[in-house]
């Protein structure tokens, strides 16, 4: 059962949606922006419940009417979802969507259509979708989910009500992991730091195996500083192949977003120690002595460059690049900075 009250740390977005829904005229197009794992999907389903519930006045759905029961069981017929078929949302998918939107809602007051990763629409698909967005058939609400609105056509953005979902505060994520996922304070703090504002990502991090892989990756980053050039190239190619072959459905190993998150915490620790010599605030406390040693050997400007280099690669991931090639390039560029 997805409701607005379940969304953590997004009060402004939730209050705005409740206020709009309670009005006489509900916008037909919404653009939910923000990184993955901050509540966009939950908000989309909560909106579907709120606009279709037959008894509720609070904005969260009554939980008892037939619509709420159908939504809770996943059997509500008036929710549609479109996402990438391979790398892109194709024109054929949008044409099929357009045909479906022409029918009246089956059960509810509104049909709610969710466009996952809307930025992956091909040019043809985007232009076709724009026509639908300009004048959708009555009884339809369309929600586009995207990390950054700049990846969409400006004409699509201008026809939607934008609702930003911000990265979550680290303490909010930590508290949620401790209270709802039985994590100890230390693990929750570390996971929240690696997740970089994403509650969904933090929950994944706490799954079995992720934090064990963290040690291997920190050892790789630390070892990179002293690794011979030819070995760096060999290592980069090996890890590049590993991430190229890794399927998205494989949860047994860490993904590249997790790699960059872990390396950012490590580089931040190095900077903290380099700048003020204080180890009390570092995240990777089990690497305290090695971090102190490395910080003493490296220039602060180079460490800052390294941090922003990894951060830029992490942001590039949101546009779904070739992860294997990206891993190779990142390792080689980090080595060049440390030389």
Task: Write up this protein.
This protein is α/β, with parallel strands linked by helices and 339 residues long. The protein has 2 domains: 161 residues, P-loop containing nucleotide triphosphate hydrolases (Rossmann fold, 3-Layer(aba) Sandwich), CATH 3.40.50; 131 residues, Zinc Finger, Delta Prime, domain 3 (Up-down Bundle). The protein has 15 helices and 5 strands. Strands 2-3-4-1-5 form a 5-stranded parallel β-sheet, with helices on both faces. The termini are far apart.
User: Under CATH, the topology of the largest domain is which?
Assistant: Rossmann fold
Run of helices and strands: HEHHEHEHEHEHHHHHHHHH
> Distance N terminus to C terminus?
53 Å
Radius of gyration in whole Å, from Cα?
Answer: 23 Å
Compile the SSE list and pairings.
Elements: H1 11-21, E1 29-33, H2 40-52, H3 66-73, E2 79-82, H4 91-101, E3 111-115, H5 123-134, E4 140-146, H6 154-157, E5 161-164, H7 170-180, H8 185-195, H9 199-205, H10 210-224, H11 229-245, H12 256-276, H13 288-297, H14 300-317, H15 323-338
Helix pairs in contact: 1-2, 4-5, 7-8, 8-9, 10-12, 11-15, 12-13, 12-14, 14-15
């Amino acid at each position: 059962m997805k409701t607005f009250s379940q969304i953590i740390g997004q009060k402004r977005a939730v209050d705005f949606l409740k206020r709009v829904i309670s009005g006489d005229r509900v916008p037909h197009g919404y653009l939910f922006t923000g990184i993955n794992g901050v509540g966009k999907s939950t908000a989309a389903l909560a909106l579907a419940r709120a606009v279709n519930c037959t008894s509720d006045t609070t904005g969260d759905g009554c939980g008892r009417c037939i619509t709420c029961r159908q939504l809770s069981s996943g059997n509500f017929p008036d929710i549609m979802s479109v996402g990438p078929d391979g790398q892109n949302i194709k024109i054929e998918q949008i044409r099929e969507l357009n045909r479906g939107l022409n029918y009246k809602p089956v059960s509810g007051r509104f049909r709610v259509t969710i466009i996952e990763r809307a930025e992956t629409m091909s040019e043809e698909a985007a232009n076709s979708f724009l026509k639908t967005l300009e004048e959708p058939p009555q009884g339809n609400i369309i929600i586009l989910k995207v990390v950054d609105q700049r990846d969409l056509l400006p004409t699509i953005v201008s026809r939607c009500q934008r609702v930003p979902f911000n990265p979550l505060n680290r303490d909010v994520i930590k508290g949620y992991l401790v209270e709802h996922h039985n994590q100890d304070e230390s693990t929750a703090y570390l996971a929240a730091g690696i997740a970089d504002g994403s509650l969904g990502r933090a929950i994944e991090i706490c799954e079995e195996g992720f934090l064990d892989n963290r040690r291997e990756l920190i050892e790789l980053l630390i070892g990179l500083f002293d690794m011979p050039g030819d070995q760096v190239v060999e290592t980069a190619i090996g890890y590049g192949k590993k991430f190229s072959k890794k399927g998205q459905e494989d949860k047994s190993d860490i993904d590249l977003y997790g790699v960059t998150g872990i390396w950012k915490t490590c580089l931040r620790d190095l900077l903290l120690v380099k700048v003020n010599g204080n180890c009390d605030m570092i995240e990777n406390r089990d690497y305290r002595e090695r971090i102190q040693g490395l910080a003493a050997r490296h220039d602060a400007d180079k460490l800052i460059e390294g941090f922003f280099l990894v951060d830029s690669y992490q942001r590039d991931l949101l546009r779904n690049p070739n992860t294997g090639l990206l891993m190779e390039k990142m390792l080689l560029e980090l080595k060049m900075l440390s030389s």
